[in-house]
Design a protein that fits this description.
Order of helices and strands: HHEE
Number of helices: 2
Strand order of the largest sheet: 1-2
Strand content: 5-15%
Radius of gyration: 24 Å
Shape: flat
Distance between the termini: 55 Å
Helix content: 40-55%
Length: 93
């Protein structure tokens, strides 16, 4: 019977899943947006209305981003349901 040597770790380095976490520049930009919004709210004649308007615009932007991500992730070959309408990609049938 021959001795079985345990397998060692591979010398090939694998890439780490990068880009999944927002980068440092993105976080700095978000902090800048927050400071800008706070400045506009504190300088406004009606801070409540201004704050609601700013939050509304931010929500619209995030919804657009979510829709874009969803559209990009949807393959042409998968079936999907969108607002009660079923759609199919080319390769489903």
């Amino acid at each position: 019977m021959t001795a079985v040597k345990p397998k060692g770790k591979s010398k090939v380095t694998r890439k780490k899943a990068g880009g999944s976490v927002p980068g440092k520049n993105f976080m700095i930009a978000l902090q800048g947006l927050e400071e800008l919004a706070k400045g506009q709210i504190s300088a406004a004649k009606d801070p409540f209305r201004t704050g609601i308007g700013i939050v509304s615009e931010i929500k619209k932007m995030t919804l657009r981003l979510e829709n874009e991500i969803e559209d990009d992730s949807r393959s042409m070959t998968e079936a999907y349901d969108s607002a009660g309408v079923v759609g199919m990609g080319i390769g489903v049938l």
